[in-house]
Amino acid sequence: MKKFAFTKMHALGNNYIYVNLFEEHIAEEDLASVAIKVSNVYTGIGSDGMILICPSTKGNVKMRVFNNDGSEAKNCGNGLRCVAKYAYEHNLVETEEFTIETLSGLVHATVHLQDKKVNEVTIDMGKPKLKPAEVPMLGFEGNSIVSEKMEFGGEELIGTAVSMGNPHVVFYVENIEKAPLHTLGPVVEKDPRFPEGVNVEFVEIMNESEMHFRVWERGSGVTQACGTGACAAVVSSVLNNLTQKNTPTIVHLAGGDLTITWKENNHVLMKGPAVVICDGVYYY
Ligand SMILES: N[C@H](CCC[C@H](N)C(=O)O)C(=O)O
Predict the structure, then answer these.
(1) Structural domain for 38, as ranges
(2) Is 231 labeled as catalytic in the residue annotation?
(3) 136 within some domain
(4) Residue 138 lies in a domain
(5) Is 226 marked active-site?
(6) Are residues 150 and 67 in the same domain?
(7) Fewer CB within 10 Å: C terminus or N terminus of the chain?
(8) Tens-place pLDDT, residues 124-138
(9) How many domains does the chain have?
(10) How does residue 216 score in pLDDT terms, banded at 50, 70 and 90?
(11) 199 Cβ below 6 A of ligand 1
(12) Alpha carbon of 76 to ligand 1 centroid (Å)
């Protein structure tokens, strides 16, 4: 019987099973199936997926993200904050500022302490990618996809596409409580115009520095929060002249709030909490 120690953590309710590969081992060929198994709330632990904290030759630590369908993602904002908290509290890093390698590049993390524990983390998520080929999304030319007409399931929507290292498409609604998350989410996620799939966000603008936000995540479905999605939503809202650049913007997600700033240097800063739920041993 194979086993590994894990830590379950959440960031605004977006919860993952974290495995410290500095100490544990999971065979590469088992990763996708183990991610599916641990995520199952009935026969596993229950989570939105699995995140590995690995040694890195490019940064202080490396993060690998697996959705609950076993697919590997190139970035995860909520995961980065939890990885930063874990790395600091388990002495994988010695400073309050350090780097985390992801499949979409290196990010800078700053942990914020309260009674020597990490209660919030700021991640510099780097620059958004806006070109159709960078999202990626087929069927559009030019430098960006901003408020373009898109037809899904017979319905015409106006969407804005942004990559934060992973693909996002943002739609604006009048009332967030009526966002068609469960109906349109899965249809858009798997639309062939998104060759790598897509995370689907619905946003209700409240004012020029505040919005409501809900998400259907690629590979995980509806989650309580999506950090890269919140960043994409703020970038989209600036591009659509709905919010201001270089202004800390409050994103109200189902699980709580993030403060996102798309800075003049084009970097996106994300600040929010990270919480340890429990530690355990998983047998498979
Ligand atoms: N479902 C995402 C990965 C998790 C991202 C999200 N949980 C976040 O906090 O950014 C994808 O396949 O790109």
Answers:
(1) 3-125+272-283
(2) no
(3) no
(4) no
(5) yes
(6) no
(7) N
(8) 999 999 999 999 999
(9) 2
(10) very high
(11) yes
(12) 5
Q: Which residue lies with its CA nearest to atom 5 of ligand 1?
A: 76
Q: In terms of domains, do 56 and 164 share one?
A: no
Q: How far is the CA of 1 from the centre of ligand 1 (A)?
A: 31
Q: What is the mean pLDDT of residues 96-122?
A: 98
**What predicted TM-score, i.e. pTM, was given to this entire model?**
0.98
Inside any domain, residue 140: no
Same structural domain, 108 and 160: no
Give residue-wise pLDDT tens across range 246-269: 999 999 999 999 999 999 999 999
Give 176's DSSP letter. G
Of the candidates 193, 213, 217, the one whose C-alpha atom is nearest the C-alpha of residue 203 is: 213
Residues 218 and 118 both lie in one domain: no
Q: Residue 199 is encoded by which pair of tokens?
A: 């995370």
CA-to-CA distance for 246 and 267, rounded, in angstroms?
A: 10
- pLDDT by residue (tens digit) across 158-196? 999 999 999 999 999 999 999 999 999 999 999 999 999
The complex's ipTM works out to: 0.99
Q: Does residue 276 fall inside a structural domain?
A: yes
pLDDT band at 103 (very low <50, low <70, confident <90, very high): very high
Same domain, 27 and 70: yes
Same-domain pairing of 175 and 205: yes
Whether the predicted pLDDT of 120 surpasses 90: yes
Q: How far apart are the first and last CA of the chain?
A: 6
The two three-digit tokens of residue 120, written as one number: 């919030």
Where do runs of H (alpha helix) occur along the chain? 31-39, 77-89, 181-189, 227-239
The predicted structure's pLDDT at residue 153: 86
| CATH assignment at residue 57 | 3.10.310.10
Give pLDDT, residue 106.
98
Confirm or reject: Cβ of 159 under 6 Å from ligand 1: no
Please state, in angstroms and rounded to a whole number, the distance separating the CA atoms of residues 77 and 89: 19
